[in-house]
Amino acid sequence: MSVDLSNVRNIGISAHIDSGKTTLTERILFYTDRIHAIHDVRGKDGVGAKMDSMELERERGITIQSAATYCNWKGNAINIIDTPGHVDFTVEVERALRVLDGAVLILCSVGGVQSQSITVNRQMDRYNVPRISFINKCDRTGANPERVTGQLQDKLGLNAHMLQIPIGLESDLDGVVDLVAMKALYFDGENGETIREEEIPADLKDAADEKREELLDAVSMFSDELMEAMLEETEITTDMVKAAVRAGTLALEFSPVFIGSAYKNKAVQPLLDAVEYYLPCPTDVENIGLDLEKGEEEFAVSNDSEDPLIMLAFKLEDGRYGQLTYVRTYQGTLNKGDTIFNTRTGKKVKVGRLVRMHSDEMEEIDSCGAGDIVALFGVDCASGDTFTDGKITCSMSSMHIPEPVISLAVIPSDNKAQVNMSKALNRFTKEDPTFKTFVDHETGETIISGMGELHLEVYIERMKREYNAEVEVGAPQVAYRETISQRADFNYTHKKQTGGSGQYGRVAGYMEPLTEGEYEFEDKIVGGSIPREFISSCDKGFKKSLEKGTLCGSPVTGVRCVINDGAFHAVDSSDVAFQLAAVGAFKEGYMKAKPAIMEPIMKVAVEGPSEFQGAVMGSINQRRGMIIGTTEEGNYTVVEAEVPLSEMFGYSTTLRSLTQGKAEFTMEFSSFKPVPKSISEELVKKYQAEKK
Amino acid sequence: MGKEDLVSSNPLRALGLEKEDGTDGRRVGLVMARAGLGKTAILVQIAMDSMLRDNKVLHVAIGEGVDKTRIWYDDILGLMNEEQKIDDFQQVVDEIMQNRMIMTFKENSFSAATLEERMEDLAQQGVFKADCLVIDGFDFTDTDSASALGELKNFMEKNGLKMIWFSALCHRDDDRVSVNGIPAPCHEVDEVFDTVLLISPEENDMKLKTLKCSAACSVDAGKSLLLDPATMLIKRA
Asked: Topology of B3-235 in CATH?
């Protein structure tokens, strides 16, 4: 079944903590007949809202997974994809933003633009996502949608204008005036499901005229027709205004603002209309793929169902029938029974079942085209994998996954927990490529590593709650790296003669720093001083040496090993002998190559009232941080700095006490940099002591 | 090429900038150009030269973000490295970036008083004590600009700043000039500046004319340095 793409909207809903995102989504699902009763987030009925599937998300007030839901509104199919806002979930954010075409930014009419709003807005800017804003909670004391619109302009730099004004505010909120149609809208019935359209109340007429004038001025530049009508003072139709707003929104030069109260069932339906009118359909936006044959060169996907297939798996779900994989098709057509290729693994998979997630049921479909979001059954893959039909080699998300910067040990409390923990870890590593796990052979402990403290905390909680795996957790450790600073030669002979067949291999060459990439191996052997079959053994030996450096036991990166000479023995040389020779050669070269310990440096942004700027900068300075700059906007200042991760543990508490809880910070990985000498010495000493 | 060579071979030596350490008095400089000709590129090179000479530079960008300003430095450093092959490039970058801080303001939230307050705060907290100040985007058309300049000059003397450099936008259709040939909108405040540079496109060249120069300057007033239009790096004529 093919779908008219102009009637499809793939949208994200983003908000600061407690802006009412869950309540709004609940109302959307109700008005679109997806659910038949409204349950409040913290309602007395104890059911909880539909989207609150993850208890943890509600507790921490952040979205952890990109949940996807689907609804129909006036003949339009709306796929709603949750976007995680926290930067620890970088890959998840990137994937969600790749999948959606437009977004709704929810703001609290009292709290206004808050730190998380700034973060998600920045992410949307980065991925060129057109957005509309919804100022929620207009029924609350202190509600001031006009002030919030001003903040959208000042703090987020959006060309934001209200398309509605409120009829009454706070506890008197009755409805809204639609400035495009110039009508008053009231929401009657138990759940606000009946919309009553009336003339604008007399006391609001002047204000509405004035605001409409402002709106027309702002959007007229996106439509010649509207501009002409304004200049010639001819009739301005609703369609003209809508077209201009849509053009401005799609060009990312205008951001329409809607208001209401999801909790009081006011003005949610006009927001759904706005999603249809003003947010792009899949063919309206340019999506970028990475050509793997040309070193991840960017190219625009065609959105054409006739072209070779490209689709991205963005969410996995464990179901009764195995793994359910949500995919977004960017171009081409997928038919039931087709064979598709996973560009990451190179594996072929046959698509047995193809379904579209309908209001409250799954619909089996035979095919899907560009722009569609559908689900596949029984396809084994990881989240973020790209599938093609084999005619094209590309990826929709970068294959470069950032290296984890923090790790901790998890110890299961008993055998049952051990089994459950394994299941959980297996699932999490599939879902999230930035989450890694391994067993430390020296201590026998399972180590998990990821992109930040919160990142790991969330997985530990999920392990406990979803998999019933009781685990004890060690203290978080910074994931250091080791690297070399200069070129060094090696020439090592591995010789062992203890009866029976012996071991012999000589490996000579040099190692040098590698500026881009983690490891490179080059074979410059001429004349067969090391036989061909043992070249890969040398590579294996070097790779093994990279796992643990000799300074502090951290992985070694940024090394290029070149072999140019060696020797073998007709009987005693073997794969193992050359692997061990390479390990010895690495050890020899490594100490001569001025090894250094590298630490993860985080890009930190602290946002708070300007009066605390000095204190904030002082606190960063004390943590070996380098302040890059400050941005002063009104009474708020954002301090940007680069700070070693090891110094950031417990920073939120420090910041809270320094700023009376008025400042917040976000942090994301920036780069690895050498640690200062004194700290390096300490780490080496500690490692040596642990080894004893 | 090492850090010292980068300093000694810098064409900016012709302006005697290294003598701003007090022996030659404190210095106020100005880079003028029409829109889009590279004022920021020049300011960044002046700032970078100062940072290479171990001075702490506060770069104030009015109406620009931190990231955009930072990219200017990264780009100019990258280009310098391409042309001059700097030894231990990353180490040099890490070292000199310790000498820079960027402070950005929205156009309407900048004032000399706020800047002074912020700088004093930074110094008191022991975070950053600037030796030099670079102000990009200062509004010389503002009626209060003369008094703001006066305030900044006083602040410079009080706090021992070695130099302040400004950028100013001039317009082709405004032909007002001072007696020293300084174009509007800075023609009425030209006595504030010791050195004034003008980026002037002439035929195939982008000339960096020295309209005004202090005693330490070895480029005769009226002669020019060049600006490579491809890289925006300053070259000797």
From this structure: Rossmann fold (3.40.50)
Handedness of CA A258, A259, A263, A268 (dihedral sign): negative
Following CA atoms A441, A442, A445, A447 in sequence, which dihedral angle do they give, to the nearest 10 degrees? -70
Q: Residue B57: what pLDDT? A: 94
Q: First and final CA of chain B: distance in angstroms?
A: 22
Other Cβ atoms closer than 10 A to A519: 16
For residue A628, which residues of chain B lie inside 8 Å, CB to CB?
Answer: 66, 70, 101-102
Contacting residues for A73 by C-beta, under 8 A, at least 6 apart: A31, A32, A272, A273, A275, A276
- Determine the residue of chain B that is closest to A614 in CA distance: B121
pLDDT band at A63 (very low <50, low <70, confident <90, very high): very low
Average pLDDT estimate for A315-323: 69
Residues 6+ apart with CB under 8 A from A509: A489, A490, A524, A561, A562, A563, A564, A565, A585
User: Is the ipTM, as predicted for this complex, more than 0.90?
Assistant: no
Q: Is the dihedral of CA B9, B11, B15, B21 positive or negative?
A: negative
| Banded pLDDT at A132 (limits 50, 70, 90) | very high
Domains, in order of start, for chain A: 5-284 (3.40.50.300), 288-395 (2.40.30.10), 406-477 (3.30.70.870), 482-593 (3.30.230.10), 598-679 (3.30.70.240)
Q: Do B118 and A630 touch (CB under 8 A)?
A: yes
Question: What is the model's pLDDT at position B25?
Answer: 59
Q: Measured between alpha carbons, how far is A538 from A536 in angstroms, rounded to an integer?
A: 5
Check CB contact of A621 with chain B, cutoff 8 Å: yes
Q: Is the pLDDT of residue B3 over 80?
A: no
Q: Which residue of B94, B104, B127 is in closest CB contact with A632?
A: B104
pLDDT tens, residue by residue, A465-502: 888 888 998 888 888 999 999 999 999 999 887 767 78
Chain B residues close to A634, C-beta within 8 Å = 106, 109
| Chain A residues touching residue B74 (CB < 8 angstroms) | none
What is the amino acid identity at position B127? V
The answer to whether residue B223 scores a pLDDT higher than 80 is no
pTM exceeds 0.80: no
* Residue of B66, B102, B125 lying closest to A618 (CB–CB): B125
Cα distances (Å, whole numbers) of residue A346 to A341, A349, A385, B121 = 6, 10, 11, 57
Say if the Cβ atoms of A630 and B103 lie within 8 Å.
yes
Task: Please give the Cα distance from A83 to A60 (Å, whole number).
Answer: 15
Angle at B163 between CA B159 and CA B169, to 5 degrees: 125
Contact A493, A567 (CB under 8 A): yes
| CA–CA gap between residue A27 and residue A40 (Å, rounded) | 10
